[in-house]
Amino acid sequence: MFTSASALPAEPSAAPTPASQAASSRPGAPTSEAGAATQPAPAPLRRPAPQAGAVAALIPPRTTDVTMTGDLPGWKHVFVEDFSAGDVPLGGFPGPLYRARWSAGYKDGTPDTAGQKNDGKTGYYPSKVLSVRNGTLDWYLHSENGITMGAAPMPKIPNTASNPPRANSLLYGRYSVRYRADALPGFKTAWLLWPDSGVWPRDGEVDYPEGDLAKIIYGAVHYDRNGRDAFEKLDSDQFVTTWHVATMEWTPGRVEFFLDGRSLGVSNKAPTVPMHLILQTESCLTGCPAPTAQGHVSLDWISIWVPA
Fold this sequence. Notes:
20 strands, globular
């Protein structure tokens, strides 16, 4: 449920020094604007000691680390990509260099969230959007012949999913990206965890980083409330036009969002089923881009951990 566009990084794959609107969903699910947004206060960081006889859930320690690689307290590092294997031309991603670790996601012409309601005038077109250049995965966001184009690539994360087997399924994890974007009103990132079951909103959804590319970065956690989608939204005060490290930590009963090492807050509506990661970048959820709008989202690196 987030959006981003980017230019070329000054220092690809270098972690930055700490610094410091509605959500979107995968095709097939209703857009989150229909949900009931709340603004929860950050949860206390202390955890109560387990009661005698109770089995405490394994919850890794909270961390504000913004580095790209290596194990962290309570977390085992399982995946990293910094796109240093070489460039891939527009339309060629993932190609031989990245095929073992990436999928281009939905095929050309797949309607995105808004496209399911506007006769396919917005959709996913990886062959016209995705490339690797100068050490970044690049989204070239634009329109052709009246169709606004995005893409939703997916990393192949090592896991043990078998029912069904899925290349990027995890139950709990820490996900961190370094990215930036051009200011493109009407385009957005909605980089999300979607339930393997596909049952929405019952099994939830987590979106981060999310947001219209001309507005602030935020995170959202969707959950079922009386059979309808509801969500908690946690805002930053930052825009996508500079480099940021966005991290979400998903543990039993808890999702916490960090931007450049600073916590945006905690939601206790954490999903409890296996989820898979989709770097969903699309348009027309809070207004459409101008027909001539074009620009870039750049992903410098992505890194993933599982509870140790």
